[in-house]
């Protein structure tokens, strides 16, 4: 059981470090649910106008897709960058092919004007 003590101490301390800042403001906060003005919708100081379920322009989705591309690149290249001397040639060439596909996708989006602002 002694070999699990550092792990259990780590888990307990991480839980406390993450949960204490979440619960600490509640005893010091006022009763915000009693103020009806706090529960009303806020839109830059004006009363809300229009429906919240209106359609968005397709460019918002294109920009979000544009920013999703670097996420798997960073995720999959991190182990490759941490220990490059322990990866065999197949792993290196697989990573190069992956980076090539992402580069082609980024160049395609750039060529199509996905990042242009109008």
Automatic annotation (TrEMBL):
Q: Which Pfam families match?
A: Oxidored_q4
> Would you tell me the Gene Ontology cellular component terms?
mitochondrial membrane; NADH dehydrogenase complex
- Membrane-crossing residue ranges in chain numbering: 7-28, 90-108
Q: Name one GO molecular function term.
A: NADH dehydrogenase (ubiquinone) activity
| Top-level enzyme category | translocase
Q: Does the keyword NAD apply?
A: yes
Please provide the record's keywords in A-Z order: Electron transport, Membrane, Mitochondrion, NAD, Respiratory chain, Translocase, Transmembrane, Transmembrane helix, Transport, Ubiquinone
Assigned EC number: 7.1.1.2
Q: Where in the cell is it found?
A: Mitochondrion membrane
Main location per UniProt? mitochondrion
Q: How does it sit in the membrane?
A: Multi-pass membrane protein
Catalyses:
a ubiquinone + NADH + 5 H(+)(in) = a ubiquinol + NAD(+) + 4 H(+)(out)
Task: Identify its protein family.
Answer: Belongs to the complex I subunit 3 family.
Q: What does this protein do?
A: Core subunit of the mitochondrial membrane respiratory chain NADH dehydrogenase (Complex I) that is believed to belong to the minimal assembly required for catalysis. Complex I functions in the transfer of electrons from NADH to the respiratory chain. The immediate electron acceptor for the enzyme is believed to be ubiquinone.
- Its protein name is NADH-ubiquinone oxidoreductase chain 3
Q: Which organism is it from?
A: Genlisea aurea
């Amino acid at each position: 059981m002694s070999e699990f003590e550092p792990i259990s101490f780590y888990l307990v301390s991480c839980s406390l470090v993450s949960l204490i800042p979440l619960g600490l403001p509640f005893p010091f906060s006022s009763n915000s649910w009693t103020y009806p003005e706090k529960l009303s919708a806020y839109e830059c100081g004006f009363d809300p106008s229009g429906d919240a379920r209106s359609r968005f322009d397709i460019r918002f989705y294109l920009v979000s897709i544009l920013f999703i591309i670097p996420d798997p690149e960073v995720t999959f290249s991190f182990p490759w960058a941490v220990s490059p001397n322990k990866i065999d040639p197949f792993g290196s060439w697989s990573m190069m092919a992956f980076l090539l596909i992402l580069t082609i996708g980024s160049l395609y989006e750039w060529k199509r004007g996905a990042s242009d602002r109008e």
